[in-house]
Amino acid sequence: MSKPVVAIVGRPNVGKSTLFNLLAGEMISIVKDTPGVTRDRIYAEVNWLDRDFTLIDTGGIEPDSNDIILSQMREQAQIAIDTADVILFIADVRQGLVDSDAKVADMLRRSKKPVLLVVNKVDSFSKFMPDVYEFYNLGIGDPLPISAASRLGIGDMLDAVIAHFPANETEEEDDDRPRVAIVGKPNVGKSSIINKLLGEERVIVSDIAGTTRDAIDTTIKHDGKEYVFIDTAGLRRKSKIKEELERYSIIRTVTAVERADVVLVVIDAVEGITEQDAKIAGIAHERGKGVIIVVNKWDAIEKNNKTVKEYEHEVRRVLSFMPYAEIMFVSASTGQRLIKLYDMIDIVIANQNMRIATGVLNEIMAEAVAMQQPPSDKGKRLKLYYITQVAVKPPTFVIFVNDKELMHFSYTRYLENKIREAFGFKGTSLKFFIRERKEK
Ligand SMILES: Nc1nc2c(ncn2[C@@H]2O[C@H](COP(=O)(O)OP(=O)(O)OP(=O)(O)O)[C@@H](O)[C@H]2O)c(=O)[nH]1
Ligand SMILES: Nc1nc2c(ncn2[C@@H]2O[C@H](COP(=O)(O)OP(=O)(O)OP(=O)(O)O)[C@@H](O)[C@H]2O)c(=O)[nH]1
Questions:
Q1: CB of 348 within 8 A of CB of 373?
Q2: What is the structure's pLDDT at 206?
Q3: Position 208 confidence tier, pLDDT thresholds 50, 70, 90
Q4: Which sites bind GTP 1 (predicted)?
Q5: Beta carbons of 267 and 273 less than 8 angstroms apart
């Protein structure tokens, strides 16, 4: 179930960040201890009326000259067209209708994507509404007046956004072929991996630009089974601005990960693992997707027995938030171990979908509690009543306790380890919710 993506586009100073922060700050639950893409405010998870969506801010523009503004707006708009299901085009009632607005509106209209024209800074409807009508001239529908600063019109705007989402039952949901996103920094070898896999197997089809998003998926048949690869390689825009490139690559990653069951996070063995790799891996982790760390270019590493261990140690250190992820050392150049990826993908998908019977879970919890006493505070000890699995993808558990405050993070981690000892769950994160139940 991939979440819809909503992108914000607009001239400098129209209030994009204000709107983004308003929607993000109040309506998201930020997953804390993952390295920071969320904090970069490039994207946020938003919930409105029980619909979840990913909001992306396509970028800040340096207001140098009008020429540059227009070309950067075009770039933003293109990113939005490539990745979003709904585009919020923000204008400013106080700046009025500007030439670059009209040009970008043309571009958005031709894309045939759903576009909502949002006119910001309408701090008083009675005072500013007459100025809003001018925006009908853009030819992209009814302007929606809002004030991000005074929080006016936001609910109506969100209703309009949700009305444009694809129906809940999308084709992707009927499709039970594994969907595998290949993500990673530029130049780590994402396309080389796809090409090598393609070379070894029969290619079925290369899906034409999808209906909702135009990521080009590649379907490969291996051992009688089809796998859909979602590729983020080679899609760098020609922007000369480094921040813009990074932003684009993160947006691309988020939208690919969103559609995937399993994410291959590709790392360049020659370069070694970096913080940027951790950020990218964090995107898959936050979303509870299956993850495989693929250390590529292994052919180019001088090997002795220590190398793999040292390497693995370093990768685990930088990716300490996802100890469950499997690490594979491959070479797209020689094809070394690449074929093993399929088995690993199957295993990770099986683990993402694994359900453990309540009885067995409770036996394991009882044993764990017997081996290590739960924490206590001020004479009151944590009691664990009951555990049950409530969801898959990722496997999600609810633990009923006497007092939530007593459930220490480290004790949840301990129980998680016990569950993993029993069932493995390689390649997938596990989620835990702690609920209180009155003592009988
Ligand atoms: N009066 C009024 N001012 C607003 C409103 N929303 C934003 N502003 C102001 O407009 C200015 C620009 O807002 P930002 O959110 O930074 O605009 P932006 O579009 O993200 O700007 P760039 O980062 O330059 O692209 C700030 O001074 C905001 O306080 C609004 O609803 N009413
Ligand atoms: N030695 C070695 N080089 C590799 C391997 N895989 C890829 N390369 C080289 O790494 C460079 C980048 O490979 P690409 O496949 O284009 O990387 P990418 O991740 O798709 O890059 P972007 O399109 O920029 O995102 C090329 O010069 C490849 O030949 C490998 O397994 N071993």
A1: no
A2: 43
A3: very low
A4: 10-17, 57-61, 120-123
A5: yes
Cβ contacts of residue 367 below 8 Å, gap of 6+? 418
DSSP assigned state of 374: P
Domain with CATH 3.30.300.20 in the chain: 358-436
122 marked as part of a ligand binding site: yes
Q: The CATH number of 171-352 is which of 3.40.50.300, 3.10.450.50, 3.30.750.24, 3.90.1150.10? A: 3.40.50.300
Catalogue the long-range contacts made by 130-137 (C-beta closer than 8 Å, 24 or more residues apart). 131/93, 131/96, 132/93, 134/96, 134/97, 135/91, 135/97, 137/97, 137/102
Angle made by CA atoms 174, 179, 181, in degrees to the nearest 5: 145
pLDDT-derived band of residue 244, with 50, 70 and 90 as boundaries?
low
Report whether CATH 1.10.10.60 matches the domain 5-163: no
pLDDT digits (tens, 9 = 90+) for 123-150: 998 888 889 999 999 999 999 999 999 9
Please state the ipTM of this predicted complex: 0.73
Closest CA relative to residue 193, chosen from 203, 202, 179, 183: 183
Question: Do 188 and 280 form a contact (C-beta atoms < 8 A)?
Answer: no
Q: Are 149 and 138 in contact (CB under 8 A)?
A: no
Considering only the top CATH level, what class is 358-436? alpha beta
Residue range 218-227, pLDDT digits in tens: 888 899 999 9
Residue limits of CATH 3.40.50.300 in the chain: 5-163, 171-352
CB 138 within 8 A of CB 104: no
Q: What is the pLDDT of residues 44-87, one digit of tens each?
A: 888 888 888 989 888 755 555 667 778 778 878 888 888 889 99
Q: How far apart are CA 111 and CA 415, in angstroms?
A: 50
pTM over 0.95: no
Distance CA 25, CA 21 (A): 5
What contacts 155, CB < 8 A, 6 or more positions away?
none
Ligand 2 contacts CB of residue 265 (under 6 A): no
Tell whether 235 is in a known binding site: yes
Per-residue pLDDT for 367 more than 80?
yes
Q: 188 CA to middle of ligand 2, Å?
A: 5
Distance, in Å, from the CA atom of 225 to the CA atom of 204, rounded to the nearest integer, reads 11
Report how far ligand 1's centroid is from the alpha carbon of 68 (Å): 20
Determine whether the annotation assigns residue 189 to a binding site: yes
